[in-house]
Write a structure and sequence with these properties.
The chain is an all-alpha fold and 309 residues long. It has eleven helices and no strands. It is globular and about 60 Å long.
Amino acid sequence: MMWIGLWLASAMMAHAAQPAPMPAPPRAPRLARNLTVTQRVVSGGCGRFVSSLVMYPADAVRTLQQSRAASLSSLGTTTLLNGCAMTSMFALPIGGLQFATFGIVKRTLDKAASTIGATNLGTCVDFLSSAVAAAASCLISVPQEIIKQRMVCGMYPNFAAAVSTIARDEGLRGFYTGALPTIARNVPFVVITFTMFSQFRRQAGNPDELTTAQSLRFGVGAALIACVATQPIDVVKTRIMTQAAGTGGGALYKGSWDCVSHMVTTEGPGVFLKGMAPRMACMGPFWALQFAVNEQVSSWFAAANRRMV
């Protein structure tokens, strides 16, 4: 018994002599929560601009395959760059508005969820945040799409002619031709892309900063899933926006449903898969670049913010 008592006493003394464990360092705030609104706008705008500029020819091929009024063989390869510089400038406000809105809404919803003790609403928060971001960016993306697609189809010689002709012949409303199918495509596309990207991020352990390889991989995967889900409405959008190219400036369709009915009747259901291959070849890298550049610029801003604290 004495030996047991001595052993217990020595064990207790040894345990007491051990230094207390150091508290874990505080976790750095996530990038999206460490940036100002201006920094979010710049990060998202840079990402969208770079991806738009790099992937413009691939997107032009998709437009020509889906359009009924123009072809690459008749217009020549130079049409793949028609309007590239000027319409890509639209990408700066589109990307800035999209990513900034997503970040702000997500942060607000996360705070509201934590207030009521709901800690498992990550996917719902991403879904709602991206839906608001997509709807907001359509204010700029619809005019960009109609100018870009009509220029690719050879309707206007340059950006200035495109803007002046649309404004003169159709007024402000002309810049929003095909707005309904564009919104019907953009909102689910962005929702799927942002939500899947966030899901991939959570599966990777929800790191504060993604590597470039992770951003590219997650971006490609998310965008390809969204491409498949929104392919039919993308064809309808392109047909409505470029219909004037084959009618001498007139309207071929009365609306979205008339366009769908006309396409099915004259070309069959397979028409909704037109341009799918080049679209996937474009949208996968497009969103991969957009997420990667946004992540990198956000990382620079976050590091600068930490140095200022």
